[in-house]
Amino acid sequence: MENKPIVTCAGDQGLFTSLYTSLAQQLPREPMEWRRTYGRAPKMIHLEANFVQFKEELLPKEGNKALLTFPFLHIYWTDCCDTEAYKSTVKEDMMRWQNSLRTHGSADWVIIVVETNDTKKKNKTNILPRSSIVDKIRSDFCNKQNDRCVVLSDPLKDSSRSQESWNSLLLKLRTLLLMSFTKNLGRFEDDMRTLREKRTQPGWSFCEYFMVQEELAFVFEMLQQFEDALVQYDELDALFTQYVLNFGAGDTANWLGSFCAPVRSWSGLLLRRPIDMEKRDGIQRGEASLLDLRSYLFSRQCTLLIFLQRPWEVTQRALELLHNCVQELRLLEVSVLEGALDCWVFLSCLEVLHRIEGCCDQAQLAANCSHTVGLWAYATDKLKSLGELCGLVSEKGPTSEDLNRTVDLLAGLGDERPETGESCWLVLRTPALSINDFKKELSHAAMEMYRAIGRLRSARLVGKSLAEFYMRKGDRERAETFLQEALKSYVSEGWSLPVTHTRKQIAECQKLLGRTEDYLQTSALLAGDVNLTTEERKHFCQEILTFFSFSSSTANKVTLSMGVFAQLTRLQFHPATASVHSGAILQVELTLRCLMPVSVHIQQVAASIHFDVDHGGTHGRSKGAQRQTNPGTVEFIQGNSSAGPPSSSAAGPSLELDEIQDRSPSDNSLNSTGVVCKNTHLIMRRHDSNSPPDTPNCVSPPTVAMKEGAQMLKVQDVKLEPGNNSIIFTAPSGQPGTYTLRQLCATVGQVQFVLPHIYPSVQYEVYSQEPQLTVEPLSEPLLAGLPQMVKFTLLTGHYAVKKGDALQLSNTDTMPILPSTSCTARTSNPAAGCVLSIQSSDKVTSISLPPTPPYHTLEFQLEVLCIIPSGSDRPANERLTNGEVRHRPRSYSHPDTPMTAIDQRMSIDCPWSIYSTLLALTFYIPFKTKHSLLSAGNRKYIQVCVQNVSDVNFTLAEVKLTEKQHASLELQSLNTKEQQLLCSKHSVFCLWEVRWKDDLPSCLQCVFSANFSPLNQDVSAFKPFHYQFQLERVTTLYSVRAEILPPAGEQHCRSGFLCGLEVCITRLTEPAEGEMAEESKTDTDGLKTTKLMYEVADSSSNWAVCGKSSGMVSMPMTANATHKVQIEVMPLFAGHLPFPKIKVLKYLPHTAAVAIQPDPDSCVENDSLSLLDKTLDDQGDTASIRSRGSVHSVGSGDQQQKGVAMPRLEPFSPGQVFNHSHARQVLVLPATDDHIMEVNAT
To answer: Region annotation Disordered: residue ranges (predicted)?
Structure first.
């Protein structure tokens, strides 16, 4: 549109004409900043103007809101320099001009006075100075607006003064024009806003408001502000759309009635003209239909978008417009002739595409085909609908009814418009051949564009429509190609019903093309498709069965995928371990879900097996425990490509839906609610055109030929019913190894349904096992010393036990095998057991075995006795039957029981092996025995404690204690009972007094013996029990007596007062020879002495030792030698207090030999003695010596490790020192007898 702001010119027209060209050219050269109201951003605009001669008719009348014809500025031109001429003519003309402007309320004017040198020269005598004329004009007309009078000097000359004058004039004109624009547009916008706010009042008309706001858009377009102009049309579009939506919700407007009239014209969009005046006039009169309004509105938007160089937005908006118009017509319930909307959409699509092609070159169109492909596809769909509606694509041609409908549709198209091109109009008037060719052209164009932009799904959908076109034309081969491509998209995206429909079309094409194998494959898919009716499924199933009967005599076999016929759902082994020995029976049960709607008779069901001997069964006992256990039952997941057919729903991510709510910010009321998908990026992602072969729901399941092998599972004559069917195979198990099921094949006539891969992997194992002999107790635990029953279990494995075979057991004195005459053997066969023949000799026990077949179990029981070890006797080494040295069993502590365990091993020679079999049994000693030496002065007693640590109650009888080396020694029993009950977890103590005649031996070798049996057993059940032990240094060497003396003047000790502790150490016997050599020392008088250390300590904290608590004494080594020590102690409490504990230790000098086996509980304190041996000899007593163990070194541990000999302390053996005051007590009185009693009297 070439509209420009109108500027009127009054005064000297000849003067203006001479300056018009320069003025029109120079005015838009410089941009001006336009500052608008309401805080809108300023813009730089180039101003143009349409200069017209001033006429009073051009001035706006009252109520006229047209901005296009509104004069924004009025100019009066004059070059008068003569005073008389000014007064006589110019002034009066200016006054009439201003009065007219004032009458019509126009205040935008300017007076331009042009000055030239030629005029001055001609009228020098009557010419006043120019300034005087300008001043008079300003004083007459511009009293308060002196800037409204502008002087233009020498406008036609090329001089700096002239250029400066032009620049000043142009700047003034631009400024006045912008001021006028701002003022008048602001007033217009206010009026328009007021009109829009009245839209809820009765009588308001959208068409009237449309014309007003479009006027504003025209002005913006006139000012080349296309963005602002587009905003006005977008606002009108949104306002109208909102009214239509409100109408659909029940909120009607009166003015919408004109748009609800039946549609009479559907000629499509018209975008070649800037303004479609015909439709605009219809809108202005209120006679436009909905399609007319939308067409005109979009044409204006299209024009502005083209001006803004945004042609691709046109295509986007056009597609939205076409879809929205169809919905708006339904909302408004507008009556439209059938097919009229298809015509309107089709012509509109082509019109938009032609308009875009007209403003873009081919390179731009190819690069931006993603914006236009939607229109191409939409036009293709509508053309298809039109062709089907009017009978233009049928093979028989249109009927009379179709022709009448075509005539009605052509009537609504109106006259042919040459600017739209032949393809928009002539196609609807051509016969079927032309419309078919045009549809094919459009479809191919849309497909190519979709492929170019990577939208394969859309391309395939268009291809499916094109396939239906080819099917009607009879070109089945090309139709199948497009259908297969479309099927890929449907299957990969899980569209169930489109998959079924497309497969039916493919089956029709394949049948007509004679592709038997493909047709049978597709028919099988359709026969198992639950989306079809039962009759349809039976029809396709019958197609397959008919082929079976027809092709039974042919030699060619057809291989199809089993997934289209049946579904492997479950596989189960019998036995469930899926592991058998060679030659055993193993059954494999398959569960097939038949997808056919009727029962099918199958000649053979076969499964191919892959045999692997390297990873096969075990060949010995060592591998038997490592044999892998295969699952006995395998469930196959539906949808897996190996176990099921292509189902209608693809295995994809599930929808993740979430609720969204829109609430009012003011009162939190619910405005709207909806559902949003949170994983749209996964659900709507595009799949590649080449789907992987293992994708579920593949279009045409891959067929793999059945690989014939030596190992096969076969079942003949199987009848499959619809649903689950069970088929049982007998698996081969002759050769040990691993058998893996690879393929499954069902043969029906000359058709093989093959499952190429069974996944997850299914396999069973056939093993060849070596014989295994095990021994285990019948009851836990096995008790040593008592006859116990053990069970021998023989797994024959692959070995067949023959008559005469026997087991040779090596006899041992620690675990003899007790003879039995009624030992029977039982086998895994249900037959009765047989009696075993057992023959024993000194070295071997022979057990004859009954004949037993391979892979059977033979069990028998023997009674054994484990001898409890008595002590330290170590007999000579024995040898087993195989020549190996027998190792004596050792007892050890078991972590799970308090009983001591003994491992007994036996060597067995078996007839099936040249090597001996070693078996072990663990026995537990039911008793724990310990002894102790007790002293009472010179009298000695031996105590033996027998503790029952088992869970069995025993009876002890004939308890004895003997000494093996000294016959003169008498052990007098103090035990009164001949039999004693020894309950579980209890102990029995036995006591003997040692009596001697001459001297008590220093070492005693004792043997404790008793007979024991479980409670309530016969006398014959008693078994012997022996316990040997040795007592050393049993003679009492020293006696220690202590007395506590009260303080002077007191009869009793008192707490807190010092008391005297007198310790008397007496030598009782003469020294022995060994003692003389080890401990004695000869002093200067020739008397042999030994050094003793005493220590007084009170662990109960009853006494406080004052002064030194320990010391060293030199004790003569003669009988009755005595040494007394005085120590001060203080009782801390009152009462009968036990005496402090007194220890006596041997002090061994550094020259003494170290004990061979020192007490492991001894400890060395580095700070116990820091003195050398000499210092200790000189200093008899010291308080720094502490006894903490059996052997104490006097010195640091580092010195000991370096080999330096240090003095040490050694405790006496039990019984060598007798403490007479060990259990004595002394009475201690409180410190004072004062008693304070507080009494309160009121």
So the answer is: 616-673, 1180-1203
